[in-house]
Write a structure and sequence with these properties.
The protein is of the alpha+beta class. Helix content is about 20%, strand content about 40%. It has a six-stranded antiparallel barrel. A six-stranded mixed sheet has the order 10-9-8-7-12-11, with no helix packed on it. The longest helix has 11 residues. The N and C termini lie far apart (about 60 Å).
Length: about 190
């Protein structure tokens, strides 16, 4: 199985180094010297990592055969792709590769079907499951332990404990049934205190 592990950024200096946007939790494993990576577009590779170092918080790589700024600039926006055994798991037992999570069925703790994971969205603060419901609509589920309470790869499902309003309109129904907004109820609660 092939996984995108980085995207090449701009050239750094004049000796062929490039910045890379890392897209793996294991850069030391996937982007170490000697690693041979496929590329997208395929015509740019395969590329063999010659050296790597961190400079000002960014990973810099140099590839075999690329020894000047012109060659480095020609690689800009190229995706680096690693071959990974599909059965391989990350070292931490609570971590998963995206391909392991895609197509998992999502159910609540009481067994109610929510849908199927179609995509993992990696945001700066957290990851989100993009879950397609049976009716074709999508819901976004934060991949945090308070909400995603279990991942069972053998059963091909993710179990969630969604807060009110995340996957349904339960919170909105409660407000309508009560006849008042949540802020009005909160104000009343404050008056009673």
């Amino acid at each position: 199985m092939q996984l995108v592990v980085a995207r090449i950024g701009r050239a750094h200096g004049i000796k062929g180094e490039v910045t890379v946007e890392v897209r793996t939790d294991e850069p030391e494993l996937r982007l170490g010297p000697g690693a041979v990576l496929a590329t997208d577009p395929a015509s740019a590779g395969p590329l063999t990592i010659e050296t790597g170092r961190v400079h000002s918080g960014r990973l810099l790589l140099r590839f075999a055969g690329v020894h000047d700024r012109t060659g480095a600039e020609a690689l800009r926006n190229t995706l680096l792709i690693a071959d990974v055994d599909p059965d391989e798991r990350p070292e931490d037992e609570d971590e998963y590769y995206d391909h392991q999570l895609i197509d998992l069925d999502v159910v609540t703790e009481d067994g109610t079907e929510v849908g199927r994971i179609t995509e993992i969205s990696h945001l700066p603060t957290q990851d989100l499951f993009v879950v397609e419901r049976p009716d074709g609509t999508e819901v976004y589920v934060p991949f945090v332990s308070e909400i995603v309470t279990g991942i069972d790869l053998d059963e091909q499902r993710a179990v969630i404990a969604p807060p009110p309003g995340l996957i349904d309109d339960r919170a909105a129904r409660d407000e309508v049934a009560d006849g008042r907004s949540a802020s009005a109820r909160d104000a009343d609660a404050g008056d009673e205190a």
